[in-house]
Design a protein that fits this description.
Radius of gyration: 18 Å
Largest sheet: 5 strands, mixed
Strand order of the largest sheet: 1-2-3-4-5
Order of helices and strands: HHHHEEEHEHEHH
Number of domains: 1
Amino acid sequence: MNDDNIFKVLKLERKETIHSAMIAAIVAHDERCWNHFFDILEKGKAKGFNIEALRKSIIYDDNKNHKWIDTEVHLTEKIKGKKRDRGRADIWIGTNNPTIKDKDKYRLIIENKIDADFQYRQLRKYYRYLTDKESRQFAGLFVLCVKDDNEFMSKVKNAAETFNTESKKDKETEYAIITYKDILNWLEEVIIETEEGDFKTAVKQYKEIIKGFYPETKE
């Protein structure tokens, strides 16, 4: 076998579900990984986001029972007695602190886009999941993408503005864009602070896959 990178061997380089699961697993590995990830989100935050409040509302669990982060989450909730489908979140982050009242719980959704386009009203569903209850505070909605060119950014903006204008609520769209270049920077921090072992090897292999998104990237 010419390449021992497991992601390349299994041809998973551009599979969104694998990337979402890998990112969530690294975030949840230890508190340093977790804190560096939230640092990245804070740098990319939009007006009104309160990432620090979300950070403080999470009790880090060393037993690896990380109920505050999940992937491929089907978003459903009851609104006025009726069950509403809010789509499927690629990465979902929320509070696990039992002392925080439901109305004060923060939720964050990351929509992961590598090759696929936005589905019909996709961001609108997420936005309503985050804001439908009048008293609920929320951290925000992030779009994670490979491209950061004007054409793709325009697509993100249009998708966001569409769900904003269709929403019955008089609220401004709150979203932010982060790219896999941000993820690459985060992985570099993780590698620096992680001891040698299976986890560090896996992160290094994953980092090589992300670098493949940006051929111009040099060490």
